[in-house]
Write a structure and sequence with these properties.
Radius of gyration: 21 Å
CATH superfamily: Electron Transport, Fmn-binding Protein, Chain A
Structural class: alpha+beta
Number of strands: 7
Strand order of the largest sheet: 2-1-5-6-7-4-3
Order of helices and strands: HEEEEHEEHHHE
Largest sheet: 7 strands, antiparallel
Length: 154
């Protein structure tokens, strides 16, 4: 795996660099987080669409170029930038080949570095960090009930 990225405040970028998967919420419409592969090239985070479906996160980002990246217990807002640079796309290809090198990953890496997926290379420009404090229903405090009239003590 390539060396850890070195940039000011890059602990999140380093975490993405070493994570096998990240999850993103593309756009503002209600839906689930989508799990996908992300790579880091020069302290910049890149993702690609594997399937390029009509109703995919990639198509959503083309229309609404913002979302939320989820990694472990953290959520970070991002804006997406479609990459057209051939040099950057080649560097992202190389990053995918180096990072996803397990035997089961190889067929997918071949697809991710193919022309169809290469055309979807998207940079996630990270914004503010939010800690997620999601609790289950049982962890939540009960709602306060409306106060009843005070009872008279007679």
């Amino acid at each position: 795996m390539p060396a850890q990225p070195k940039a000011p405040g890059s602990s999140l970028v380093a975490t993405i660099h070493f994570a096998r998967r990240v999850a993103i919420w593309a756009g503002s419409a209600p839906h689930k987080f989508t799990s996908l592969w992300a790579v880091v090239v020069g302290a910049r985070v890149f993702v690609r669409s594997w399937s390029v479906r009509p109703r995919s996160w990639y198509r959503t980002l083309l229309v609404e170029p913002h979302g939320v990246l989820q990694l472990k217990e953290r959520e970070v807002r991002f804006r997406s930038v479609h990459t057209r640079s051939e040099r950057t796309r080649a560097a992202v290809d190389h990053a995918y080949v180096l990072k996803y090198d397990h035997p089961g990953d190889i067929p997918y890496v071949k697809d991710m570095t193919g022309a169809k997926s290469r055309a979807t290379t998207t940079e996630l420009v990270l914004g503010e960090l939010r800690a997620t404090a999601r609790r289950s229903r049982t962890d939540r405090a009960p709602r306060a009930r409306a106060a009843s009239r005070p009872r008279s003590r007679a």
